[in-house]
Here is the input.
Amino acid sequence: MMKLGLFLSGPGHHIAAWRDPSVAPDAGQSLRHYIEIAKLGERGRFDFLFNADSNSTFGPDDVNVWKRTTATLRLEPLTLMGALAAVTSHIGLVSTATTSYLEPFHVARLFASLDQLSGGRAGWNLVTSSAASEALNFSHAAHAPHAERYERAAEFVRVVMGLWDSWEDDAFVFDKDAGLFFDPAKLHTLNHKGKHFGVRGPLMMQRSPQGRPIIVQAGQSEAGRQLAAETAEVIFTVQQEIEPAREYYADVKQRAAAAGRAPEHVAIMPGVMVAVGSTHREAEQKYEALQSLIHPDLGVATLSDIVGMDLKDYPLDGPLPEVPLINTQQGRQRVVVDLARRENLTIRQLYQRLSGARAHRSIFGTPTEIADSLEHWYKTGAADGFNIMALTFPQGLADFVDHVIPELQRRKLFRTEYEGTTLRENLGLPRPPNQFV
Here is the structure.
């Protein structure tokens, strides 16, 4: 069936959500707020909570623009997911960790711990870092080149997966009479020595209840697609139009098959921001109300960040200038530039179209209209599911859970009950064998 992720974001996903009268502007710092979202998501039978992250807020000269956005505040994601594991029982817990500024042993241990504490519901969103300013927080003068970051990431994930297989499933015998805690024959020390890392192991953690945590990736560039096809079980994408989405879907599935993987074990899930109304006009008004609250400075800055070029000195009602290929989010940049050229959009039209959802597709309408759109993409080879981005939290999510999900269930497109207790079971993925056995 269709897979649904629930993309967390403090006040909501629209960039101006915090200005909505019904939203607590500091909601992103409240555990009670996230517990409410997580329980709503579990009531809606979402596959997982998805928590994006960056280790920086803005560049050193951007304060006067980014003072207008809640991106200035962001909880550390693994800490948050650990807390949410205690108040949920089925929904998956997917969080971000960068391969550019962390170490494999650190990441392997964090996610293995979350996986044990949640009973096998953890997932790692593997990123190479999209914000160049992250480098400044980790003693680097600049972000590493795109190709180098992906080369490091490919080795990084191999090390992490090796550490997750440090112990066979039945390695710990707990024999009190014999005084034997584990069977040494079922321990595997990694002893990895590569270009970027030297890691001995083993990890001080039993093997995961689901074999290993799920790996999520958002690769859209050439290098990103290849890494995702080789390693990821869920791929989070930015897609505005159905035909490019179908092309991406087919390409990544083919790459997965070429890498010796079953294409059906790679779920492609574009992000979609939704506004739900009892009528189309009501949903449109909800969306337009937030659109009107996007400050032009923030809109231009958000678009500038996506395309990797400062646009503040260009005419708002002029075309998007030629932009060089950036060192960060190359796939997202290409989606936005293609949209601007295809529809001949001005800078103002482009930021109004994209900055609210940060280049993801937006749908507003009745539950039937939204279900129609999701079903069309799902059934015509554009997506295996979607990462749902609620307009506001908690109300925008409640609208989706209470009205759109029942419509998807009526069409037999989405579950009415969870299939299992682990994230891997609910995603319909097989339990992977230990690579050392």
Notes: The chain has 14 helices and 13 strands. The longest strand covers residues 267-276.
